[in-house]
Amino acid sequence: MNNPLARALRGAGVNEVDVAARLGVDPKTVQRWMSGRMPYPRHRNALARLTGWSQHDLWPDLPRPAQPEASADEVRIVYPHRSTVPTDAWSRLFAEAKAEIDILAYSALFLAEDIAASALLRNKATEGLRLRIALGMPGGVHVNDRGEEERIGDGMSARIRTALVGFRPIADAGGELRLHDTVLYNSIYRADDELLINTHVYGRPASHAPVFHLRRWAADGMAATYAHSFERVWGASCEPNRALLT
Known about the structure:
11 helices
């Protein structure tokens, strides 16, 4: 089943029997939901909490506010760890982009190794979207510091080199690829006004740190702050030596 709820439950590692037991319903009822039937509001709330998906992601036909106010909450979903983000959330984020995609990280190796996500990024670049990827400078001061913090030494630089090779087809398709040497407080993944922000925690890998899904409502809100941060780093970054891409 390719229904959003079915995909979300698979990503959360639960089946209809598990869901039925948690929500106190019959497994056949869960099967009908997974086939497209709309659950009652109380069950929609429970399913959103269980999967970590927003209700509008699970049921795209739900009515939305006609005109969101500037004060609307920009935080859509909070994931306790990057590893709990549904595996297809990254592809869904980038697939929605109509104008630009920005990625700021030290390595973003998990994306470079994600065949579906990297192919989608390459296609977006081919279509002419502005696609910018800024990764850490291998051997840079702050990259080395991060490697020491995570107790992996040169492993951080090795990850970046591997990711650069993985992202090369995107650069060849028209995407922009740069390197930075900054203290990276967050990794930023942006598709137009939607952002996934992976916070960084001292001594822990990014996959173990929380992720915030933000939607930009206001010119001076949370999402705008992270977008401005990306621009600051991008402006101080440089193109990689071609040898790093081979």
